[in-house]
From TrEMBL:
Residues 132-231 form the OmpR/PhoB-type domain. The modification 4-aspartylphosphate is found at D54. May play the central regulatory role in sporulation. It may be an element of the effector pathway responsible for the activation of sporulation genes in response to nutritional stress. Spo0A may act in concert with spo0H (a sigma factor) to control the expression of some genes that are critical to the sporulation process. This is Stage 0 sporulation protein A homolog. It comes from Neobittarella massiliensis (ex Bilen et al. 2018). GO terms for biological process: positive regulation of DNA-templated transcription.
Amino acid sequence: MNKPLILVVEDDTAVRNLIATTLETQSYQYHMAKTGGEAVVEAVSQKPDIVLLDLGLPDMDGVEIIKKIRSWSNMPIIVISARSEDRDKIEALDAGADDYLTKPFSVDELLARVRVTLRRLHYMQGPAEGEEPIFVNGDLRIDYPSGCVYLAGRELHLTPIEYKLLCLLAKNVGKVLTHTFITKEVWGSSWAGDVASLRVFMATLRKKIETDTAHPKYIQTHVGVGYRMLRIE
């Protein structure tokens, strides 16, 4: 089986070469882009499995690139940036990024983030062995084989992280899942307990599946603990 294709968007030559060498050690296929314009063209034409994206590009901000890609694709985007403030990370995640790695980074951590993202891709392709292919709860329906979600018959556009959050809650319907458990399952051990990022994604997910976010029907908050999907009778 061919290795996944990774698009590396980075204008710093030294960092770009480091990432390229790292990917080559694992025999990953990759394409390079030095500007935002090149990144969008490569994303459209090559349809990579993962995008590694620097935010500080010479022609446009990386957050704008995330928004452009999200307007037509759910391809996973891992941000690699020198911006280390929480507000920068949350802004990128809120725009549709799937993960955020701060420079300087270790090659081991980069490869770990890539592996986690690839596992999420596999997870999204269908249900685990023995699971029902369709999950129905009230007006909510998840079609695991196609990766599609419907509410009252209308297909919803979810980001990869929103989809995995929803699937995790659905596969544990009726159970309270802690913040640490959810973040570890969705992002991996390095993000375990990152409640701020989790809240961002949970808020965007709720906007899409709840008719009244002030009085949620599907996802209940357990303050200071976590979240639970309610079973609709």
